[in-house]
Structures are given as C-alpha cells and as structure tokens.
Amino acid sequence: MSDVEAGGEWIATQTLIEKLKKKDERLKFYLITPSKNKYLLKESLFKKTIYIRHKYYKKPFKYYRELFYQLSSGKKAISHIYKQYKFDCIISTDYILTISYLISQKKLNYIYYFHGIRNNYKIFSDTFNHFMIFQKLLEILAWTMSKKLIIPSINARNVLIEHSFSLFKKKAPIVLPNLIRDEFKKNLKTHDKQIVLYSGRLAPNKGVENLINAFLLIIKKYPKVVLVIVYPGKPEIEFLKKIKKIIEKKPKIIFINNPPVKELSILYQTSTLAILPSPFEISSLFLREALMCGLPIITTNTGDSSQILSDVFILKNGDTDTIYAKIVDYLENKNKYEQSAKIVSGNWKKQYNEEKIINSWISILKAYET
C-alpha cells in the first residue's frame, strides 16, 4: 500500500519490489494506491493495481472531510481486494492506507516501510493548524501498530523518536538501507561543460529557491556553468510561477521534468557537481545515487549526510550566501573536492551491500509465508 508520488519514497519502494521479484520469482505483489501516475508507476511489477479515488473538498472542514473520505474509500478497497485474493502480509508506506487497513479489522500482520514524515510541523509557524496535530497522531498510530517497522537508516530512528513524542525509544525498528537503481552504478565522466545538478521535488521546502538565487550570482562570475534542475511529477503551481519570475528566462538554468531513468542516470554521471539544499531530509536517495555515480555532492547538514560525507561537502546552512560561497569554492578548488569525493564514494560503496539487503527482506517476508 503506497502513494505513487514524485519523490524518493516511491522510487525506493518500486526499486525494492523490482529487485525482490528478480531474486525470488514466487513473490507476487498487489498495489493499493490513491495515485495513477503513468510516469512513475511500472504496472508490470504488480499482479493487480487497485486505484482509490480521492475527493477534494472546499472549506469548511475541508481536510477532515477529505481524510474521512480517504479512510472510508481505503477501507472499501482493502475489503474488496481481500474477497478476491489471498495475501501473506501487507507492506505499507502510507499512514492513511494503514489506518484504513486497521479499521477494516483484517487480522493480517503488516510491515510499515518508513521513509519520512508527512508534516515536519512547528507549533508556532504560520502554516500550523490543528489538523496537523490530528494527522500526526494518526501517523504515529500507523507506526506503533506495525508488526515490523523497517527504516532506511539509523538517523530515521532518531526522527521517529523526535516526532512520536519519544514513544519509539523502546521499539527496535529494522534498519535496511534503500536500494539504488542499477542505472546509477556506472561512472562515465565524459562531460565537457560544468553542470551543477539538483534532482528532487520542486517544492518550497526543498531549498530550491535559495539555490537558484545563489546560482544567479554564480553565472556572473562563471558564465560557462549550467544549473540543471530535474524534478518528478507536477510542482506546486504558485511555487513554479515564483521560480520562473526569479530566473526570467536565464538560459543557464535548465528544468527537466520526468526524464527516463536511463537519461537521468547519464545526467548524474556527466555532471560536475550535485547539490542538495533541502533543510530537512531523513535519508536522501539523491545523495546516495550521487555517491554511487562517484559524483561530488554538496549538501545541508540534514539527515545522515554528516555521517556519510566529510566536512568539506557540508553546508553550514542552506541560505543563498552559503550556497554561493560553497559552489564558488568548489569551482576554484575542484581537485581537492574530487579527491575527497572519490574516498567518500569508495567508502560508502564498500558499506552498501545490496545482496545482504535483499536477503534480509526475503527472510522477513518468508516469516509470513503460509
């Protein structure tokens, strides 16, 4: 059960399913999802895909009515699929579908495959509302009721503790890193231009605006440098308008939407630098894909980046001036950064054991086999 959305969560989930099926052909997967995204979903991986329609209401009580509808439609879809098919276990990445499963009163144990939190809310922020608290409580319920909780990194456990009011201090989740797509396991390095790459969602909370403002200053000093922004799905319209207004048709800033995986991996392998300006990440897939390609990456001190990278690649913060200064330092001292990147990438690849991760998943699933 998962939302097929633009982001690392779904990419990691689908990659896992693809590799598990290659390892054990007996495995069959069914998908329940509220999203029908032809760019992101490989339907051939699933024996059956069931789509749940969502309704979008206007005020008053907009969010609560939507949530009630999502829970009821999720419960209906789960009950329907149970009548037709037999399952050994449920894997869920979506807390709404998980709560739908719980209220359907099915007795099958489920695994919660944790990737991130829905709302990194702050009580005194301008965007705070009471619905966020309610949403958070449902999310915590989905985590705590799981038979097994699987997380991508040790840092994810710390996030769980922080955002579940310390309820997870006694729970022992299983740490299984996200799998990297095969296309990212090559080092081509045939570039003849200086390409700075950002790959991720085009959203206000990703630090993209600060990156663009920094880059507008950089191209004045280094006119040959190009910023490529690759993003999946559809961005928020208002945010996209704001970004377009900032850049004003600058040819040195290129946007690429939903590229095929093969083309995306070549872009990683031919770029000179990757940058992750996001103020909050748990276990960045972009960071790991860059490491797999041997691409130097500069990132904010978020998630487990400081545990993987050396200090030279860590931004003190994600503001415009800091990003500008770090990219300029990279362009003027490329040899220093590239040598450090080779060491960091090599060390990370030694620790990344795909076979071990897949076998661990197989063992967990076999425990539920009937």
The gross shape turns out to be globular
Instruction: Provide the structure class.
Output: alpha/beta
Order of adjacent strands in the largest pleated sheet: 9-8-7-10-11-12
Strand proportion, as a percent range, falls in: 5-15%
Q: Report the span from N to C terminus.
A: 20 Å
Number of helices: 13
Notable traits:
single chain, 370 residues, 12 strands, globular
Describe this structure in words.
The chain is α/β, with parallel strands linked by helices and 370 residues long. 45% of the residues lie in helices and 13% in strands. It has 13 helices and 12 strands. It has helices spanning 8-23, 62-84, 95-103, 130-144, 154-163, 208-221, 237-247, 261-270, 285-293, 305-308, 320-332, 334-351, 354-366, and strands spanning 30-33, 48-51, 90-92, 110-113, 148-151, 174-175, 194-199, 225-231, 253-257, 273-276, 297-300, 314-315. The strands form 3 sheets. The chain has a 6-stranded parallel beta sheet with strand order 9-8-7-10-11-12, with helices on both faces. Strands 3-4-5-6 form a 4-stranded parallel beta sheet. β11 (297-300), α10 (305-308) and β12 (314-315) form a beta-alpha-beta unit.
Task: Describe the protein's topology.
Blueprint: H1 8-23, E1 30-33, E2 48-51, H2 62-84, E3 90-92, H3 95-103, E4 110-113, H4 130-144, E5 148-151, H5 154-163, E6 174-175, E7 194-199, H6 208-221, E8 225-231, H7 237-247, E9 253-257, H8 261-270, E10 273-276, H9 285-293, E11 297-300, H10 305-308, E12 314-315, H11 320-332, H12 334-351, H13 354-366
Helix pairs in contact: 2-3, 3-4, 6-11
Compact overview of the structure:
This protein has 370 residues and is α/β, with parallel strands linked by helices. It is built from 13 helices and 12 strands.
